[in-house]
Amino acid sequence: MPKKTFFNLPKKKRDTITTVALDEFASYPFQQASVARIIKKSGIASGSFYQYFQDKLDLYRHLVDTFTNMKLERFAPLLSNSDNKNFFETFKDVYREGVKFARQNPKLQALAGHLYRDKELLAGQLNDIEPKALKFYGDMLKKGISRGDVRKDIDIELTSYFLFKLGSSVNEYIMIGGSLEKWDMKVVDRMIDFVQHGIGKKGG
Amino acid sequence: MPKKTFFNLPKKKRDTITTVALDEFASYPFQQASVARIIKKSGIASGSFYQYFQDKLDLYRHLVDTFTNMKLERFAPLLSNSDNKNFFETFKDVYREGVKFARQNPKLQALAGHLYRDKELLAGQLNDIEPKALKFYGDMLKKGISRGDVRKDIDIELTSYFLFKLGSSVNEYIMIGGSLEKWDMKVVDRMIDFVQHGIGKKGG
DNA sequence: TTATAATATGAAACTGTATTCACATGAAAG
DNA sequence: CTTTCATGTGAATACAGTTTCATATTATAA
User: Fold this and answer.
1) Please, which pLDDT band fits residue B127 given cuts at 50, 70 and 90?
2) pLDDT tens, A7-32?
3) pLDDT band with cut points at 50, 70 and 90 for residue A144
4) pLDDT tens digit string along B22-48?
5) Exposure of B188 by Cβ count < 10 A (0-12 exposed, 13-18 middle, 19+ buried)?
6) Which helix (H) or strand (E) element contains residue B89?
7) pTM strictly above 0.85
């Protein structure tokens, strides 16, 4: 989080820095984004920058936080105005609103694009692993369909992607909770139940 | 990918570098991992390092690739020996095997832990956004349950997590395909169907 | 007004990765 | 043996983020 000196700044100066920074992070991925450039364009001293922010990451996170909070605030009304809609209709509304938001804020969208690619930089679809994992799940699904376990009207490619991401999130969920010692097959069981039956009420 | 000079190296030297590097990346997150230390411990010249690898990331990815390939190879037999098991039982086996693999390779597991945290470094549960997003989905689910749209025997916290991750993956899936212009609500529809009904064959 | 604290400044130094380079070594070919 | 080509070497340099610091400037309080 930025230091309190940043929030003590006159709004105009704060806005200048924020705007310049958003522009920088919308134009370059995190690593290539230059603190020196931000300092220059903002017209502040380099010493000042580090009196406002811990470091480059601190500023970046501040932007991402602000951006995500804005997005979440847009979603809130969907929930309170959803009396006549069921869960799944509201869920779809969330996405519609998300697309609208992205179209209205191209720089934030550009930043999000970099964010996504930056996350994948260390490991992800940019290397050759993800395709292999997707193929693995795809094969599993095909077998399941031919055995009759799995619905045959699903999109195999897309569903593989979902399973891959769900699998990763289970790993993460358990890692958050602690170490491998605490590994709990119950979480896996719940995930598989989620995948198998969904969360919709039967006949609902 | 490492340069061919690396693969031309005598196996022993190559293994030394790999072991030292694994040790480094298991001990420190990517940013803090030091090329200088790896060079020192491996007993190679700094000039040589850059004749073997593009840069630090190149070496890191090589390790992650190797590690993930090893893991995938362990999973392959599960698929071919699954004739008497349905999709969801095999799915569970994959996780059992994953845990075994992690226990047998603590350094790889440590590296994976850093990898996960590094990915979350830019944005994720380390900042204050994810809890808010999870709460949002949690509220949606509670409302769905009280309306009778959603099964009431689900784990709300865990399911919120799944929805959050699935949502992110939809965004990513569409971003891979191209720009926002190509945004296709059909992908969202399929995702919602996946969430609502699951992929298990009814009565299967 | 004066005292005290908070903030602003920008150059200089520091850190660690990335890159270059001239030269050394070694192996294989003729 | 010597030519040739690939590889090894480590010091030197470049580069960008970070840190420091002595010195202004501004704001608040007494």
Assistant:
1) low
2) 988 888 899 999 999 999 999 888 88
3) very high
4) 999 999 888 888 888 899 899 999 999
5) buried
6) helix B87-104
7) yes
Would the Cβ of B57 be found within 7 angstroms of any atom in strand C? yes
Residue of B161 and B171 predicted with greater confidence: B161
* Residue with CA nearest to D20's C1' atom: A47
Amino acid at B87: F
Can you name the residues that pair with B150 across neighbouring β-strands? Answer: A200
Name the residue with tokens 């790999």. Answer: B18
The CA distance from B26 to B114, in Å, is 7
Q: At what angle do helices A106-122 and B106-122 cross, to 10 degrees?
A: 170
Closest CA to A5 of A59, A58, A50: A50
For residue A180, is pLDDT > 80? no
Amino acid identity, position B26: A
Domain boundaries defined on chain B: 4-122, 129-197
Mean pLDDT across B65-77: 90
Say whether residue A7 is in contact with chain B using an 8 A CB cutoff.
no
Closest CB from A75, A125, A149 relative to B86: A149
- The tokens of B97 are what? 């095997």
Cα–Cα distances (Å) from A84 to A81, A198, B160, B192, in that order, read 8, 22, 22, 18
Cβ atoms of A196 and B198 closer than 8 Å: yes
- CB of A8 lies under 7 Å from some atom of strand C: yes
Q: Which nucleotides of D are covered by protein (CB under 7 A)?
A: 6-12, 16-22
Give the model's confidence band at A109: pLDDT under 50 very low, under 70 low, under 90 confident, else very high: confident
CA of B47 to C1' of C20 (A): 9
A157 touches chain B (CB under 8 A): no
Check: CB of residue B136 under 8 Å from CB of residue A79. Answer: yes
d(Cα A1, Cα A47) in Å, to the nearest integer? Answer: 18
Q: What is the pLDDT of residue B140?
A: 95
CA distance B97 to B88: 14
Q: B18 to chain A, minimum CA–CA distance in Å?
A: 17
Q: In CATH, which superfamily holds the domain spanning A4-122?
A: Tetracycline Repressor, domain 2 (1.10.357.10)
Nearest CA in chain A to B88: A192
